[in-house]
């Protein structure tokens, strides 16, 4: 007489490592066969791996491994294969159905509950693997950004093109800044070739600025490619080879959220001045002659300056409209002036608790209503008892850098 349990076990043994890995929600590393990651049972960083080509798995932390899905499932789920009940449970997890001699004893309700437990376990493992993958990617990007910044030369000694660029943009001399750096031939990567490899579209001089966290540790970098012969922005014009689209001559690497770009001065100063971009902050600093009692900074963009808005503070733009799915024009909704109540430290740039005056620089060549709402939100977010937060606007349709450059030409 055939024993259904034997066939059940043999069917489970035939399950591939790849299938079992998907069932467990383990992380797959692109097109490679080897997939290292934290062990779901032992933890660690890359102590666990499975190979879909060799149909093998291994855990260095636990000192175990094998070449079937049953063993891998048992290890990940903390089951002891030397115990019959645990072994059969591992087989049941792999196949997604109960052990034959237990099936008749399992009610429909118990069957549903068991399948639900398996699915919850799979989703939990998958969620953990995805979160770890995101953290790994983020840390790799931060490391690359730090490497770019650390390899660049200080502006004061070697980076004359950076000083000339900022002077051409109306920012005066910034050679005293020990934050900004210069790279003589930084590659601008864009797109991929037929083999999937990144393409070096351009290589040239660049200004490198760090994104610093509250501990003044670099978490990212801001790159501006320079071309002093290309007025009025003095940045190269780069085009997508496929579409002909004009590409931005600035890029950010690593993390920016929650960080800021220091331009000049000491963060211990009680007066801070800054806005979105480097050029705007430097131009305003030049206008007030780089005050020694002030720390000048840039947030990188408006979102990092102001942070997210409270959902209930959104409002309809007074003039801008866009068609909905049916083609009917509807007002554009604007993120409001009230910060989101459940704030995270990385939602927006940090400001030292000791700061008594925070001068926020607006950008008048951006859409006025959206910018005004964001600036009001930034002021509300960074407000503290006793802290003054004036918002300074340039001439309509301009930014401070454009105003400074125009004034320099007139002079």
For the secondary structure, the number of strands is 18
**Number of continuous helical runs:** 12
- Helix fraction bin: 25-40%
Described by strand count, sense and barrel closure, the largest sheet is: 5 strands, antiparallel
Distance between the amino and carboxyl termini: 103 Å
Number of domains: 2
Low-pLDDT runs of 5+ residues are none
Order of helices and strands: HHEEEEHHHHEHHEEEEEEEEHEHEEEHEH
Spatial order of the strands forming the largest sheet: 5-6-7-8-11
Gross morphology is elongated
The value of Rg in angstroms is 29 Å
Strand content: 25-35%
Structural class: alpha+beta
Mean pLDDT value: 87
Folded structure, characterized:
The protein has 411 residues and is α+β, with helices and mostly antiparallel strands. It has helices spanning 4-13, 17-24, 69-77, 84-95, 100-103, 108-151, 155-158, 160-168, 278-287, 302-306, 368-382, 400-410; strands at residues 34-39, 43-51, 56-59, 64-66, 153-154, 181-192, 198-212, 218-225, 238-239, 246-247, 250-254, 261-264, 271-275, 294-298, 315-323, 329-334, 357-361, 391-392. Strand 3 (56-59) and strand 4 form a beta hairpin. The radius of gyration is 29 Å and the shape is elongated. The mean pLDDT is 87.
Helices and strands in order, then pairings?
Elements: H1 4-13, H2 17-24, E1 34-39, E2 43-51, E3 56-59, E4 64-66, H3 69-77, H4 84-95, H5 100-103, H6 108-151, E5 153-154, H7 155-158, H8 160-168, E6 181-192, E7 198-212, E8 218-225, E9 238-239, E10 246-247, E11 250-254, E12 261-264, E13 271-275, H9 278-287, E14 294-298, H10 302-306, E15 315-323, E16 329-334, E17 357-361, H11 368-382, E18 391-392, H12 400-410
Helix pairs in contact: 1-4, 2-3, 3-4, 9-12
